[in-house]
């Protein structure tokens, strides 16, 4: 039944009730049976003038009475026609979907609370800002402060491009690893509890709800890293260095400066970086609501989980090949500190290794059974006993 209410203060003395199933409309305020000669045989709506004059007077009196009556809530209205036994529609609650009772001086519920400013982005932005700041200070210490202290050489010109371009990939791959790390932790928690019906800790639940924002920030920083890398040949300092390299080659009487392994290194890690960025772009596009709604759950889950791990793997291999033989170069350890690419691959490597362990058949089958509703009786009973104690 579809009911519709109107407040009498609006000037409508009758309450309108519509039956959606039958199409009947009843007006409890204006009743034709109380009007003599209201409907004649010869006309569709014919009435004597005195009858309508009396009705107009009654309506005026009722309007004055409504003005004299104090305002009340719709739920507390007790004005009813006791003579006829008919109860006013104001006293009966309407069962409309999404209907909210609003008092005279109440505002809608959606306006009672102030709108929050990017609530789901706070945690990812905070973590990205912290990681960026620490990486920037660490890189400045190695690239700028160390040569200034040891050899009195100033390399502050490296900060706008070179230093920033070492910070961006570090933060990007860290945020991408943080997208898939809570899934690993959730699987371990489910294996430990033996059931999927026990709630995750609040911090883990909040972390899992922010994975989309972590991924989008990672993609944004990866795009910036690609743009900064493409700007290398346009830098004036790079052109001066290129002239110096050519002059040194002439001074050393070298006809060919070709270095085979260095060529292979750059070709491979650039190619892997492009493919990884393309997969990240696909993940970002499928996270758009209009695109994700057009996909089935199986398709969306495959893209976000399987291709996401592939992009993390490509990013990790990209960093490892970029390092090449620098892993064993002692000169890379400035003030006994490892280079940034060594620190950047630690967390992604841990996540990938955990994914490999959890994908083993013995663990994978148990995780799938738990997520399908199976419960380990021994662990669930132990948990219930601990909760009772």
Automatic annotation (TrEMBL):
Membrane spanning residue stretches: 169-193, 214-234, 268-286, 307-328, 340-363
Q: Which domain of life is it from?
A: Eukaryota
Q: Which cofactor does it need?
A: FAD; heme b
What are the boundaries of the region Disordered? 1-33
Q: InterPro entries from the entry?
A: Fe3_Rdtase_TM_dom (IPR013130), STEAP_metalloreductase (IPR051267)
Q: Which cellular component terms (GO) are annotated to the entry? A: endosome membrane; plasma membrane
Q: Which subcellular locations apply to this protein? A: Endosome membrane
This protein's record includes keyword Amino-acid biosynthesis: no
Q: Could you tell me the keywords of this UniProt record?
A: Endosome, FAD, Flavoprotein, Heme, Iron, Membrane, Metal-binding, Transmembrane, Transmembrane helix
Q: How does it sit in the membrane?
A: Multi-pass membrane protein
- Decide whether keyword Transmembrane is in the record: yes
**Pfam families the record matches:** Ferric_reduct
Please report the stretch or stretches of sequence annotated as the Ferric oxidoreductase domain: 170-304
Q: Which family does it belong to?
A: Belongs to the STEAP family.
Its recorded name reads: Ferric oxidoreductase domain-containing protein
């Amino acid at each position: 039944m579809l009911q519709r209410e109107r407040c009498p203060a609006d000037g409508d003395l009758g309450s309108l009730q519509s039956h959606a199933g039958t199409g009947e409309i009843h007006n409890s305020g204006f009743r034709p049976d109380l009007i003599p000669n209201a409907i004649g045989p010869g006309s569709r709506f014919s009435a004597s003038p005195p009858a309508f004059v009396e009705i107009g007077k009654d309506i005026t009196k009722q309007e004055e009475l409504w003005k004299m009556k104090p305002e009340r809530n719709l739920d507390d209205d007790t004005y009813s026609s006791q003579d006829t036994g008919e109860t006013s529609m104001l006293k009966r609650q309407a069962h409309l979907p999404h209907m909210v009772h609003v008092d005279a001086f109440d505002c809608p519920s959606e306006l009672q609370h102030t709108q929050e400013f990017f609530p789901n982005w706070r945690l990812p932005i905070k973590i990205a800002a912290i990681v960026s700041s620490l990486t920037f200070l660490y890189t400045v210490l190695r690239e700028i402060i160390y040569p200034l202290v040891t050899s009195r050489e100033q390399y502050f010109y490296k900060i706008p491009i070179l230093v920033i371009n070492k910070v961006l990939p570090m933060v990007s791959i860290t945020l991408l690893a943080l997208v898939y790390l809570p899934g690993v932790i959730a699987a371990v928690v489910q294996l430990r509890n033996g059931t999927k019906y026990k709630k995750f800790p609040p911090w883990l639940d909040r972390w899992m709800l922010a994975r989309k924002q972590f991924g989008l920030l990672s993609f944004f920083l990866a795009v910036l890293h690609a743009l900064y890398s493409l700007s290398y040949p346009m830098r004036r300092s790079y052109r001066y260095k290129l002239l110096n390299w050519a002059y040194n080659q002439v001074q050393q009487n070298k006809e060919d400066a070709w270095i085979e392994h260095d060529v292979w290194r750059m070709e491979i890690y650039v190619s892997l970086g492009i493919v990884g960025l393309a997969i990240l772009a696909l993940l970002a596009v499928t996270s758009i609501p209009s695109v994700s709604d057009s996909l089935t759950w199986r398709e969306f889950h495959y893209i976000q989980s399987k291709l996401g791990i592939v992009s993390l793997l490509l990013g990790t291999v990209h960093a490892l090949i970029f390092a090449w033989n620098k892993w064993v170069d002692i000169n890379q350890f400035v003030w006994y500190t490892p280079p940034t690419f060594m620190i950047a691959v630690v967390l992604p490597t841990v996540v990938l290794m955990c994914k490999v362990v959890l994908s083993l058949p013995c663990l994978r089958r148990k995780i799938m059974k738990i997520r399908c509703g199976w419960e380990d009786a021994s662990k669930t009973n132990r948990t219930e006993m601990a909760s009772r104690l």
